[in-house]
Specification:
Length: about 90
Amino acid sequence: MNMNINELLKCLNCGSCVKGCPQYQEAQKETKSPRGKIRNIKYAYENKKKIDLSDFDKCKDCDFPCEDVCPAKINFREGFKKENLEEIFNEFSD
C-alpha cells in the first residue's frame, strides 16, 4: 500500500477537521471536508477506481487548519497534494 494512503488511513473519522475547513464551510458538504475526502480516497483505492481530484486543487491554497486539530496528526498538506494522489490512482481505470 502506498505510504501516502497509509498516512490518510490513520483517520479516526472523528470530524475534528470539518469545523475549520474552508471548503466545507463554503459548500456545507461532507465530501468537501478532509474527512469526506479521505472516505472517497479510501473507497476509490479499495475498489481500484480513479477519483476526481479537482477538489484537492483548492487545498493547495489553504493553511491546513485541519492539521492543527487532527488527533491522528495526519499530514493533510502532503496527503492531499494532487501529484501524490495522481501517483496513487494513475494505474486505476475510470
